[in-house]
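I had to read the description of the data format several times before I understood it. For illustration, here is how one protein appears when written out as sequence plus structure tokens:
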Amino acid sequence: MDARSSDFARGWRNERGEPTLGEMFGTVRTAGRGSFGRKLLAFLGPGYLVAVGYMDPGNWATSLAGGSKFGYALLSVALLSNLMAVVLQSLCTRLGVATGRDLAQACRDSTPRWVSIPLWLSAEIAITATDLAEVIGTAIGLNLLFGMPLAIGVCITALDTFLILALQAFGFRWIEAFVVALLGVIAACFAVQIALADPDWGGVIRGFVPSGQLVTNPEMLYLALGILGATVMPHNLYLHSGLVQTRGYGNSLEEKREAITLSTIDSTIALCLALVINASILILAAATFHKAGHVDIAELDQAHSFLSPLLGSAIAPSLFAIALLCCGLNSTITATLSGQIVMEGFLNWRIAPWQRRLITRMIAILPAVIVTVWAGEKATGHLLILSQVVLSLQLPFAVVPLVLLTASRVKMGSFVAPRWLTAIATLIAVAIIGLNAKLVFDYVMG
């Protein structure tokens, strides 16, 4: 039985086509033999690119707003969101390795066009919202460090397209190394700022316990959904299911099982780092702004200007701006890769890599420039939070197909997700849909 008939026999409507990110497919060699540590080292990388999306500038805006207004209370949302992300990313790994398809391709090959096209549009909306947050965040970082006008800074973010192409010329590992290096800078910046802020660690620990106010307080729910959307980001589900295929792990059942295990460890470690950084942003806001009575911090530049007098250190605002710029650069790189995966996966539209990346970047930059010019620089923080809530509203359109696909023994074969994992993922999907419904109801009712 050839590959095509095998695919149809396993319940796919279309045969498996060329992989997305084809120029990177299977290019990273893995250690077929050797110690567990050596094998794991070969798989470390994609998880950190995925983790970047969990600490993007949009997440900064929601965490700063949440920490300044409610103190440490929303730390529980950051923790729960991260646990959700770990579960869902493990399903992405399983889907990508088992089927040789990323989530976009799997949706295209398993559903009729009247279903796949709306799913594609939903994914594009999510990526546009993500890009809007990331290009604005990068522009704010350039503004805070160099005094560059936001509109010009937004346009400069188009250069990340050529940065990816330059790094890719040396191999995909160079992209991963660049991202990890910037993550190290971000972590160091926040370590110094947290030490200067000297937070109430008892309050921090209590903040990780969920509060009933999350459901009863509409304003807290709005920010909680913003944190959820900024953490369990729809485009990251497409991204990881594609990036895992950059590893040349082989085709045997044993090799694929090992690849799923090692890739899941990679993403889990990376997401733990993302949680630490996300929590640090919220803790910094609670320990400085909330403690000082500044409960309405929504703008990143506003937070930057308040840090120096509150912490008594001239270096704190610079560290904040450097970390923000690094987050913006990292996030625009991964969002561009996500745009490529979604476009190729759903539409099977293949053009030159530089053209494709420039198109996906322009889709984000044009709305960002228009919004910045029309709404003004002072509205960027509210726009960042709104973009994250839009992501949360788009989440079900990525999560539900992911859960259904990985729960199908017909499509996944022996790699079908265990029932306990499917049950947990289903509860996550129901919780996301329920919270979104509550948000929409509160908005309609005023």
